[in-house]
Amino acid sequence: MNDKGASELLVDGLDAAYGASQVLFGVKLEVERGETLALMGRNGAGKSTTFKAIAGLLPPRAGRVMVRGHDVAGQKPYRIARAGIAYVPEDRQVFPEHSVEENLEIAEREGVGGREWNRARAFEMFPMLQPLRGRMAGRLSGGEQQMLTIARSLMGNPAVLLLDEPSEGLAPLIVQQIGALIRRLRELGTTIILAEQNSRFCLAVATRVAVIDKGAVVWRGDVAQFRADPDVQARYLQV
């Protein structure tokens, strides 16, 4: 399953619920190595819940989560992380009382992607963080924290990077920088699933699109197909 063209992540028939309320209904996603898949949908459609179910923060009721051919559905979050899933939540969650460099050091380890990522490479890829390496993460701006959280997630050398609303609440210049970073990561072969409200941002960085509505994936295709289908955009994305 490691060859180019094979699935890095296959989600099949994923159901999840909060208590008695079911919120995901047979979600199916597939992403190959080096792709950036945009998971798009309105607020409350199930984007973040899908990520939490994949990452093990919300144990699924049914379905498979295959990471490079291994089913990790329902395992503890730390086991899923070790299997190759890196999750960047929308609220960032840095370690505020630790420095930028310590945040990276905490996460640094060999993963399913080998040892491609380390602190030196992170500071090279995220030059904004270089002069801040000794600053406490809690004193960073929102954009700096977002960059740090993405960099920290890469330190585990994952198979797949889940980015939940990475542009939310950030200044336009920072959003542009994050978009450029995602495109650069894709060029390096990083596999990414991006959940976003900002459709313009999504379509500028993604290779394929999956649309989720009321907890189910209702459309799949490449970016060109999505752009050419205004009915889908009007039906599932416009408020």
Give the SSE layout.
Blueprint: E1 7-18, E2 21-32, E3 36-40, H1 47-55, E4 62-67, E5 70-71, H2 77-83, E6 85-88, H3 100-107, H4 119-125, H5 142-154, E7 160-164, H6 172-187, E8 191-196, H7 199-205, E9 208-213, E10 216-222, H8 223-227, H9 230-236
Parallel strand pairs: 3-8, 3-9, 6-7, 7-8
Antiparallel strand pairs: 1-2, 1-4, 4-5, 9-10
List the keywords.
6-stranded mixed sheet; 4-stranded antiparallel sheet; Rossmann fold; alpha/beta; single chain
Strand content: 25-35%
Indicate how many domains the architecture comprises.
1
| Stretches with pLDDT under 50, minimum 5 residues | none
Distance between the termini: 40 Å
Under the CATH scheme, which class? Alpha Beta
Q: Give the averaged pLDDT, no decimals.
A: 93
- The number of distinct β-strands equals 10
GO molecular function, one term: ATP hydrolysis activity
Keywords: Amino-acid transport, ATP-binding, Nucleotide-binding, Transport
Family: Belongs to the ABC transporter superfamily.
InterPro entries: AAA+_ATPase, ABC_transporter-like_ATP-bd, ABC_transporter-like_CS, BCAA_Transport_ATP-bd_LivF, P-loop_NTPase
Care to describe what's here?
InterPro entries: AAA+_ATPase, ABC_transporter-like_ATP-bd, ABC_transporter-like_CS, BCAA_Transport_ATP-bd_LivF, P-loop_NTPase. GO terms for molecular function: ATP binding; ATP hydrolysis activity; branched-chain amino acid transmembrane transporter activity. With 239 residues, the protein is an alpha/beta fold. The chain has helices at residues 47-55, 77-83, 100-107, 119-125, 142-154, 172-187, 199-205, 223-227, 230-236, and strands spanning 7-18, 21-32, 36-40, 62-67, 70-71, 85-88, 160-164, 191-196, 208-213, 216-222. A six-stranded mixed sheet has the order 6-7-8-3-9-10, with helices on both faces. The chain is globular. The model has no long low-confidence stretch (mean pLDDT 93).
